[in-house]
Design a protein that fits this description.
The complex is a heterodimer of chains A (273) and B (187).
Chain A (H helix, E strand, L loop, with lengths): L3 H11 L7 H35 L5 H4 L3 H8 L2 H19 L9 H21 L2 H8 L9 H8 L1 E2 L4 E11 L5 E7 L4 E5 L5 H6 L5 E9 L6 E10 L11 H4 L13 H10 L1
Parallel strand pairs in A: 4-6
Antiparallel strand pairs in A: 1-2, 2-3, 2-5, 3-4, 5-6
Helix pairs in contact in A: 2-5, 2-6, 2-7, 5-6
Chain B lengths: L8 H8 L6 H18 L6 H14 L10 H20 L11 H8 L3 H10 L2 H10 L2 H12 L4 H8 L3 H23 L1
Helix pairs in contact in B: 2-3, 2-4, 3-4, 4-9, 6-10, 7-10, 8-10, 9-10
Classes of the chains: A alpha+beta (273), B mainly alpha (187).
InterPro entries (chain B): RNA_pol_sigma-70-like, RNA_pol_sigma-70_dom, RNA_pol_sigma70_r2, RNA_pol_sigma70_r4_t2, RNA_pol_sigma_r2, RNA_pol_sigma_r3/r4-like, WH-like_DNA-bd_sf
Keywords (chain B): DNA-binding, Sigma factor, Transcription, Transcription regulation
Protein name (chain B): RNA polymerase subunit sigma-24
């Protein structure tokens, strides 16, 4: 009777079977470790972008731009980055499990390890400015709204008293009225009546400045878009840096009653007290 | 160079990468154990063909053997994977000779008094086999490796490529399933 070992060696010989080269195992191991590292790196970038969003959100003006803090928080939550981090953690787990010794680690340990590394590395990347770069770079993706776009959209809402854009002209009439021409983010021109503002504020209005106006949208017979300004803030690098501080705006408040009851304006007034 | 018969499995496996004759020693050492094992996890009359396929696969993957692990765990893993994949390819259910000696099985599983009593008092070998065949494959695998092949948790972890903690929890659930299955059948 033929021994099993003889049969097997014969089959190996006849089939010209050779052990798979060592490099295929090494390459597979390196590939999965690299994919794990890449997943952790992308997860860390997601954390850095989340930190950027949270630290650069216009918290101070949330009552001006949103009716409720909950609405602001819901709008601010970096869903894209949270989903990206979740996917990267899952991908990291998958890749680590496919390394030579990855099966020895439990799901909880691998996930906690991935989260911990992502948080630490994410904080470092945030400090070196990666968060802002990531937030900007992904802003153009479909269904994605960066914090910059989110704020721009929030301030493109004249019916709710919020309008931002660039000052392209300033006209002072003989009767004391001062009218700005503002090109909004959707490229439409608006006439902004800033007569009600203090002299200091009016002096801050300069052609080329980008400002965020709080006011009353007005009906116009000739179709000209116009707004009566109650206050304006400079559009900072990330919409949270008013040119004139909120307290200064209302320091010497001699405004007419036109703006009373305008919700964003009342919220801004409350901030000054 | 032919390895000495007294050399360890790991030494022979490393040598067989260069000298295929040495692989014959491993075949001789493991053919009976593996044949029993694959029958226990469900192989029927195709078991001997499957055994050849297992050794050919083991030879093919020899460079992937990590000498820091035991050769036994490694070849059991190949046997397990080859058998399971053969079932999947042929879409067949495992056969029914998982255990041959009920007493030995009971002695091994006897660390859990409840289940041991349940099995002892109410079951024949055939009934235990039927119960094993009724539980999920993942439960059957750990029960066979632990109580029939008598492997340690670490070895089972290496064979099934799952963390040691998962081996313990799978084993605990497997025993519960087995007990439920036997209780259900005896009612």
């Amino acid at each position: 009777m033929t021994k099993v070992s003889d049969t097997i060696l014969k089959k190996i010989e006849q089939g010209k079977i050779e052990p798979m080269p060592v490099w295929t195992y090494t390459a597979k191991n390196i590939l999965f470790w690299s994919l794990w590292a890449l997943a952790v790196l992308i997860g860390s970038i997601a954390v850095s972008a989340m930190l950027f969003v949270v630290t650069h959100a216009p918290w101070a003006l949330r009552e001006v731009t949103y009716e409720t803090t909950a609405g602001f928080v819901l709008d601010l939550l970096p869903y894209f980055w949270v989903i990206a981090l979740g996917l990267m953690i899952a991908l990291g787990f998958y890749n680590l499990r496919h390394t030579k010794s990855g099966y020895k680690y439990s799901l909880a340990i691998v996930i906690l390890l991935n989260i911990l590394i992502s948080i630490i590395l994410g904080a470092v990347l945030f400090i070196v400015g990666m968060g802002e770069i990531a937030e900007n770079a992904t802003g153009k993706l479909p269904l994605r709204e960066s914090i910059f776009e989110m704020q721009a959209n929030r301030w493109s809402n004249p019916m709710n008293g919020l309008l931002a854009g660039e000052i392209v002209d300033i006209l002072s009439a003989d009767d004391g009225e001062v009218i700005l021409t503002l090109t909004a983010f959707d490229d439409q021109d608006w006439k902004i009546n800033i007569s009600d503002l203090s002299d200091e504020e009016i002096q801050e209005a300069k052609i080329g400045n980008i400002i965020a106006v709080i006011g009353l949208s007005e009906q116009s017979i000739d179709g000209q878009l116009s707004m009566y300004a109650c206050a304006f803030l400079e559009w900072g690098e990330c919409c949270d840096e008013p040119l004139v501080s909120v307290r200064e705006i209302f320091e010497d408040d001699e405004r007419t009653t036109n703006c009373r009851g305008v919700r964003p304006f009342e919220a801004l007034r409350r901030l000054s007290h | 160079m032919r390895m000495h018969e007294n050399a360890t499995d790991e030494e022979i496996a490393l040598s067989a990468r260069k000298y295929r004759q040495d692989f014959a020693i491993l075949v001789e050492r493991y053919q009976d154990k593996l044949l029993r094992y694959i029958r226990r996890i469900g192989a029927g009359e195709e078991a001997e063909d499957l055994l050849q396929e297992i050794f050919i696969n083991a030879f093919r993957y020899l460079n992937g053997f990590d000498p820091s692990l035991s050769f036994s765990s490694w070849i059991y893993r190949i046997a397990h994977n080859t058998t399971i994949s053969a079932y999947r390819k042929k879409k067949i259910r495992p056969h029914g000779n998982l255990i041959e000696d009920g007493d030995e099985f009971l002695a091994n599983i006897g660390t859990d008094e409840d289940i041991a009593t349940e099995l002892e008092t109410k079951c024949s070998v055939e009934e235990i086999n039927n119960a094993l065949l009724s539980i999920k494959q993942k439960y059957r695998d750990v029960v066979v490796l632990r109580y029939v092949e008598e492997l340690e948790y670490k070895e089972i972890s290496d064979v099934l490529k799952i963390p040691m903690g998962s081996v313990a929890s799978l084993l605990s659930r497997a025993k519960k399933n087995l007990k439920d299955e036997i209780s259900g059948k005896s009612k």
